[in-house]
Write a structure and sequence with these properties.
The structure is a homotetramer of 290-residue chains. Chain A is an alpha/beta fold. Chain A has two domains: 160 residues, 3-Layer(aba) Sandwich (Rossmann fold), CATH 3.40.50.720; 121 residues, Orthogonal Bundle (N-(1-d-carboxylethyl)-l-norvaline Dehydrogenase, domain 2), CATH 1.10.1040.10. Chain A is built from 14 helices and eight strands. Chain A has an eight-stranded mixed sheet, with helices on both faces. The first copy, chain A, starts with a strand and ends with a helix. Chains in contact: A-B, A-C, A-D, B-C, B-D, C-D.
């Protein structure tokens, strides 16, 4: 398929490469053009403007946050440049509120909005191991499926209302953060009781907690391997803020999300912007005098 | 082996049956004798007193809490009735402090203390699917291994100091409770955002959270199936109290454990002693107006 | 003095009346004109537009929230209608961020921005018992002093940077909310222990806690008198959100603010928009099964 | 009156001195006899044993904690040495549970138990500025009133059931701790927003928060004057534990008490046993990177 592709960041780059490898044609735009140029050897065309990339039948955006996506999708001629019936697939972790706003803006512009969030760190993106969770008009979601198949190991279409995918993503990221926090607390207790967290982790992830999240983050936390960051503290904080904003809008108290936010705030206050968000467990350990 | 067996509760009954089925000889004591009698058909001898059961080479206790174990092990002639070199295997979820006290009392009495905690609900006990985590003098732990093999699917000996097994168990139970709390919060957010928690759970436990704890408790919580209880609110509360007591003794703040405790306290204050401890998620939902 | 006055709400009305009673000339604008008309008998002129009220030397705004103030001050010709050197006195509880933005916008427009927040409920406003905390250029703050004196019992100028007054106000409101939450928790403990919170309150506020906040809110909470609202749940929630937004921007974890926010969210989720924000203590009591 | 006096600690010493100064006869026992000897010049008799002090008509105990009081009152011949109808006045901050136990033990021993807790730091004790809150049989409480008058500025008898005074004391200490925590959070926000907490404190305690607790602890916290300790971290922690134990027994979630406990645990984990309990605000500041 012909795909406009906007946003070549840490996730965007491997995703674009996998789309190209699967035979799709990409016209790529990135604000810092040199990042887009990295894809030229993989066969991508490089767009000089948002408008140029917006001319394709399907346009994917992989931008850093609400602000960046808002700027591109609502602050440029993006919407007016889309062909009638063209599909905008947003893959960013954004607020439910912005997703709602974009759904409405596309309806007015007679284009189609699909929200397709991804779970997985950059290494998973490279390995085509992402989980893609999409929501949008069924026809449009189906038309995009080959793209999702090219970048991930599993695709789930969960409904026709795009913001559902964003709420899903936020709930999922919260679950990950909560697991990290819990591991941090359990490990602090074990360490101060003279036990080895690694042994605990090995047994738990061999049985009751035999899940990728516990294995991957548990190892990072047990070994205190917070650098280089797969997903840095400010990004983690951004996501937890989105979780809490969605919870606030829906009048849902989420006390564990508060705990996670506070520990990430402390990480940030201590200048750990470069560490992985799993370093919230380092704050937990420090609070125990470790 | 000849095994004294004290405590025929919801976990004790299936565990004793599996020991008998594996060919071990049991002399069983239970305060309410009729519970012990349930094992007569399986070939157990019934003891009329703690002292009688304490005469075996290995004596297992499966009592409800610190209080019950303290009463039997320190408040009767239990210790003095043990043969020199006999092994007391405590399988209860008790405090690290009592485990330490028993370790010392056995050292004085020239008997051996092994702490062997189990993970798994009564149905897992019936199915010989328990995870046994033991700590104690290596020789003694090895001698007990056939017993552990008879009742569970996996045995791990994590060290020579018995209280280590209790700290391990508390950290593990905390991790389970924290997962339930997190699921409860995520589901509340999803439900109030118009999404189906069951679908979310299915996708998450098919990928990042593909672990028994998330599958089992996630299903209970998504379906609000809190009765009959596999592990009731007061028992959950007891365990979280032990976690917080161990954390306090080790100067470890555990904010997520606080959240869990508070939600179980509310469950109790609302008269839900009969519900499963996963019903803490019901409190989370109620706090969101659900 | 000649004063433009924009925003005749629950606080604006008594404040305007006191300004008029002190001999100041007011030209009043309110979106719903009938509210402004209430002041005609007190001698106010009624403005037909924001622009009309903005022609005075000093223009006071008393608007509901960030959104309302932003709309008036940045979304109309307000700034361009101000005379060079005119003073805009904002008395609303708004975000530190908007206060910063207005400071900069006024600097560009060659007008002067003073942030002057008030502590006190509507009854205190009527009785000229407000505490006014102002920040802005010293000359401008001094020029406004007669106005502050006319509406409150105490005026404090805390600095030259307007957003300081907003941070001060948010910290102060947090302290009030935290006191209510604490009283709620203490009362729940006392009630469930068979003690009378009113007696406790009487003794405490006669000694260690002999302060208006404890007396006023303590009485409301002990008597569960949450209606009519002096300051309703949604307004309380708005303020706590501003506190947490300021804390987030400054990387400051505020766990007690989280607790307050969560209890107000539950109040809102239970449909208590009409109750006073002190009804967060009702949620605390309910969590204890009361 | 003739008073047996057991426990000459930081509070006991000035209290005993004030009793002696008011003309009462004291026979004083302290485990470390040299502490008791400090009172000889003030006219006290020195007892060689608990039993000796227990012979008076009224026996006051001012012991450090549950353990110390339990040891004296239940672990010695204390009860049997009391004359029939003698009054035991316990002034320690102890658990509601132990107070209940002592009430029952005294009933059996045909002696009378009065629980009379005190609010105030050692300096307040020296200055006869304590608040005494007593509960016990009305006759007995009245008989003790001259003693209370000799040591404090205000006496309140709140009921006939002794444990009520202990629950009152715990609720009161919680309120103090919560105020310190709240001040700590507000100050952290102000400091990181470039404001001076001292100025904020001055204005707030001159108006809405014009109460001794806010003035005294606010000053300690604003000036970070945590040493020498009026009431050290381990004592604060002990009291918060008692609050949470009483709350747990009554099924009352107290999330702010959890926050306080966690911050005191961190203070302790960082080796600050010598600092005042108001140093929990130091932990709050550190969490904000200050």
């Amino acid at each position: 398929m012909e795909v406009g592709f906007i946003g070549v960041g840490r996730m965007g780059l491997p995703i674009a490469r996998n789309l190209l490898a699967a035979g799709h044609s990409l016209i790529v735009y990135n604000r810092t053009r040199s990042r887009a140029e990295l894809l030229r050897d993989n066969g991508a065309l490089i767009a000089g403007s948002v408008a140029e990339a917006a001319g394709a039948e399907i346009v994917m955006t992989l931008l850093a946050d609400d602000h960046a996506l808002e700027e591109v999708a609502l602050g440029t001629d993006f919407l007016s440049r889309l062909k009638r019936g063209a599909i905008h697939v947003s893959m960013s972790t954004i607020s439910v509120a912005l997703s709602r706003q974009l759904t409405e803006a596309h309806a007015k512009a007679e284009s189609v909005f699909v929200s397709a969030v991804v779970f997985g760190r950059p290494t998973a993106a490279e390995a085509r191991q992402l989980l893609v969770v999409a929501a949008g008009p069924p026809d449009a979601a189906e038309r995009c499926r080959p793209l999702f198949t090219a970048i991930g190991s599993r695709t789930e279409v969960i409904g026709s209302d795009p913001p559902a995918a964003n709420a899903f993503k936020l709930a999922g990221n919260f679950l990950i953060a909560a697991a990290m926090e819990s591991l941090g607390e359990a490990f602090a207790l074990l360490r101060k009781s003279g036990l080895d967290p690694a042994r605990f982790l090995e047994i738990m992830t061999g049985t009751l907690f035999a899940a990728p999240v516990y294995k991957i983050y548990g190892k990072l936390i047990a070994e205190e391997q917070f650098s280089p960051a797969g997903f840095a503290v400010p990004l983690g904080l951004k996501d937890v803020r989105l979780v809490l904003a969605a919870a606030d809008a829906a009048s849902v108290p989420m006390p564990v999300a508060n705990v996670v936010r506070d520990h990430l705030l402390t990480a940030q206050a201590r200048g750990r912007q470069e560490l992985d968000w799993s370093s919230l467990a380092k704050v937990v350990a420090e609070n125990a005098g470790l």
